[in-house]
Design brief:
3 helices; flat; Helix Hairpins; mainly alpha
Length: 89
């Protein structure tokens, strides 16, 4: 039962990744693209967690934590650059 649920979740999150990537490429403005990039890395984290549950490996959870950390820092840096034109004050 859990295997079927994880496969359905894989399919739905994969569709969300494709839609986020499409918005990243075709976003009308820069804030829309930054939001799509943020959503893309969150969906990638969800895929890694699902894969870790499916395979029973803790390595995927560590990779998800690293992607979450790098994604958060990247989003903050892009937003700061977009608002001020400079990252480091």
């Amino acid at each position: 039962m859990l295997a079927v649920t994880i496969q359905i979740a894989f399919a739905l999150v994969t569709i969300a990744v494709i839609m986020s990537f499409f918005r990243l490429l075709r976003g009308p403005d820069m804030p829309d693209r930054i939001l799509a990039l943020d959503t893309l890395y969150i969906n990638t984290i969800a895929l890694l967690v699902l894969l870790g549950i499916y395979l029973g490996s803790a390595l995927f959870f560590e990779a998800a934590l690293l992607i979450a950390l790098m994604g958060f820092i990247g989003t903050v840096a892009l937003c700061k650059y977009l608002l001020r034109g400079d990252i480091i004050e």
